[in-house]
Specification:
- By secondary structure, this protein is of the alpha/beta class.
- 36% of the residues lie in helices and 17% in strands.
- The chain is built from seven helices and seven strands, in the order βαβαβαβαββαβαα.
- The chain has a seven-stranded mixed beta sheet with strand order 3-2-1-4-6-5-7, with helices on both faces.
- Helix 1 packs antiparallel against helix 7.
């Protein structure tokens, strides 16, 4: 099935506000940029995804995303994640994509192989909603819609159950999947501590994020060129 990835990205200066005093303002912006770069790279290297659609008002991201073949849409008004994703889903439908995978820009450990596995199962003929929750089971870190207009995105606190309810109301098949590399998104200082621990254990991956956090990439893991 022709699949697009939908990636909404806040301006880096506005991103990760909930980290608060856990990091400096400069590190917060650098971290947001690095994480998006790692997510874009994973999408680019996932053979099951034909195209990324990036929705952003961040000028530093547009050229890098287009260089990797992404469609870049301006996030006019910056009305939040759900509105940005809806804009991307509409474009995916216009481009003839049969399904769309919505992912956030703050899951830097995202693994192309896990994305391929998630996308390896064809959707039922009547359409389907697949939800990847966050590590707490409440939010939504991944939303796979077949077709792209299957339901309206409704991100934010409690969105996992809200997306399930929308799928039921639409009469669509719905399932929950938990690929490990998509469960951890970075919103709080606690999340950042968990990311540091995860990257230290893994020894590789997320090269841009590692560099910003001052974590060494062990031999055998090649860091690819910066995507953002």
């Amino acid at each position: 099935m022709r699949t697009a990835a939908i990636l909404p990205v806040k301006r880096f200066s506005h991103a990760k506000q909930r980290l608060g005093g856990a990091v400096s303002e400069q590190l917060r912006a650098d971290l947001a940029r690095a994480m998006v770069g790692d997510v874009l790279s994973a999408i680019h290297h996932c053979t099951a995804i034909e195209r990324a659609i990036v929705i952003t008002a961040e000028p530093l991201l547009a050229a890098a995303a287009r260089y990797q073949g992404a469609i870049v849409l301006e996030d006019r008004g910056e009305r939040g994640q759900s509105a940005a994703v809806a804009h991307g889903l509409a474009r995916a439908g216009e481009e003839g994509f049969e399904r769309a995978l919505c992912v956030p820009g703050d899951c830097p450990t995202i693994d192309p192989a896990e994305l391929r596995a998630l996308l390896g199962r064809p959707a039922p003929s009547g359409g389907e909603v697949v939800i990847v929750p966050d590590r707490h089971g409440h939010g939504t870190n991944g939303l796979l819609l077949s077709p792209p207009h299957a339901i309206a995105p409704a991100f934010g606190p409690g969105s996992c159950e809200r997306h399930r309810a929308h799928a039921r109301a639409a009469g669509l098949a719905c399932r929950v999947e938990r690929p490990a590399s998509l469960l951890l998104d970075i919103d709080t200082g606690e999340d950042l501590d968990a990311l540091r621990e995860l990257l230290a254990r893994a020894g590789g991956g997320a090269p841009r994020t590692r560099a910003v956090l001052g974590l060494r990439e062990e031999a055998g893991w090649g860091a690819s060129p910066s995507a953002a």
